[in-house]
């Protein structure tokens, strides 16, 4: 199977190297070195410099490549906006999407697919820090901001950087089964299926700030007073609105309900406290406004996809 990874100037190196290593290791585990043939396709010939300065020689360009592609992946870049307006590249991607068995993106590479119309109506993932931007710029996409990777038909999209390896491993499992995928995961010292979503790594509230001053004032109050009464009636009164109008305007402005925002704010604060201290769960719950520690534990696991104990095991300093 030919795996083609499309890369641009200032591409994210691990978006290319990570998935490539997964496919190469899978071929090795199969005992068939050519089971997966990884090819890097560039937007120009020669050598591409990555965002970190390391260089990679491309095997072909969008203008010169030949032969059938089984799987096409688009790598991300901190300067991905430079590629969104490339109409020739968009035409090439649309043609390829009609012939390949599957296609997708790693990290912000989703923006290039979206600009080509290939994500319209699709469930997609991207880096947590660009998820809101993707949803805003391309409202016909269905962005799943917490997902590590998403499969929608023959479209595969992943979160940022190392998540491209999770995506490639899912493709290997689809092609050759769980046993081979597990052997590859063990060899590369990675999870077969990573527990939890992106929110365990992200500044979870970064994409939820309102532009409307009344709603933003309420958000600021929530973030500064997590132990207060933060029910919808109390917040609506602070905003000077009816409960119904407040709930509707808040959701329109932020993409989430007031109750979800409050829970996110409390769990985000608890997450940071859990990283920085070893205070017991009851004190953590009290510090962020939960009267019931069991309710706090359930909310923590629901929002971050991992338990408080497991989160501390990974991230506590």
Tell me what you see in this structure.
- The chain has helices at about 15-30, 80-85, 85-95, 110-115, 130-135, 165-175, 180-185, 215-225, 230-240, 245-255, 260-275, 280-285, 295-305, 310-315, and strands spanning about 1-5, 35-40, 45-50, 55, 60, 70-75, 100-105, 125, 140-145, 150, 155-160.
- It is globular, with a radius of gyration of 22 Å.
- About 40% of the residues are buried.
- It has 2 domains: about 1-195, Class I glutamine amidotransferase (GATase) domain (Rossmann fold), CATH 3.40.50; about 215-315, Arc Repressor Mutant, subunit A (Orthogonal Bundle).
- The protein has 14 helices and 11 strands.
- Helix 1 packs across helix 7 (about 180-185) and helix 11 (about 260-275) packs across helix 13.
CATH architecture verdict of the largest domain: 3-Layer(aba) Sandwich
User: How large is the radius of gyration?
Assistant: 22 Å
Structural class: alpha/beta
Strand content: 5-15%
CATH topology of the largest domain: Rossmann fold
Counting DSSP H or I runs of 4 or more residues, the number of helices is 14
Tell me, rounded to a whole number, the average pLDDT: 92
| Biggest β-sheet description | 7 strands, mixed
Q: What keywords describe this structure?
A:
Arc Repressor Mutant, subunit A; Rossmann fold; 11 strands; two-stranded antiparallel ribbon; alpha/beta; 317 residues; seven-stranded mixed beta sheet; 2 domains
Per-chain topology:
Elements: E1 2-7, H1 13-30, E2 37-42, E3 47-49, E4 55-57, E5 60-61, E6 71-74, H2 81-84, H3 87-97, E7 102-106, H4 110-115, E8 123-124, H5 131-137, E9 142-143, E10 149-152, E11 155-158, H6 163-176, H7 178-187, H8 213-224, H9 232-239, H10 243-254, H11 258-276, H12 281-287, H13 293-304, H14 308-315
Parallel strand pairs: 1-2, 1-6, 2-5, 6-7, 7-11, 8-9
Antiparallel strand pairs: 3-4, 10-11
Helix pairs in contact: 1-6, 1-7, 6-7, 9-10, 11-13
